[in-house]
Amino acid sequence: MSPDFTCYLDIDQQKGLFTIRDTFTQRVKCEIPQWLMNINEISEAVHRFRWVDNRTIKVINNEGFERVFDIETMSENCFNAVPLFQYPKGYHYYFDKPILQLQNVGDRLLRKY
User: Fold this and answer.
1) What is the SS3 assignment for 19?
2) How far is it, in rounded angstroms, from Cα 5 to Cα 19?
3) Tens-place pLDDT, residues 58-84
4) Single pTM value for the model
5) What is the C-alpha separation between 78 and 24, in angstroms, rounded?
6) What number of helices (H) and strands (E) belong to the chain?
7) How far apart are the first and last CA of the chain?
């Protein structure tokens, strides 16, 4: 759900794509390309998805590139290569990062990169 609960992430099984729908009208606002979020890896794709604000989403693709999109125009605003992309399966990249020990300074600095 978007921060103001007006949109949500859904799956269009017929087209094989993730979509963003309006909560009240069920109208598709945008379709997310399969190269960005693969429907064959649903749980992994969802764990790399995040709402930035009501119009903007952030997605990390399979290669480890984080891309920020405006859902009204589906235009890419910016992108970033994500360091330390190798996380265990089932972890949400943005919310479930593994805890690092305080004395593990090198890894903590790499994460802040």
Assistant:
1) strand
2) 15
3) 998 878 788 999 999 989 999 988 765
4) 0.73
5) 29
6) 2, 7
7) 29
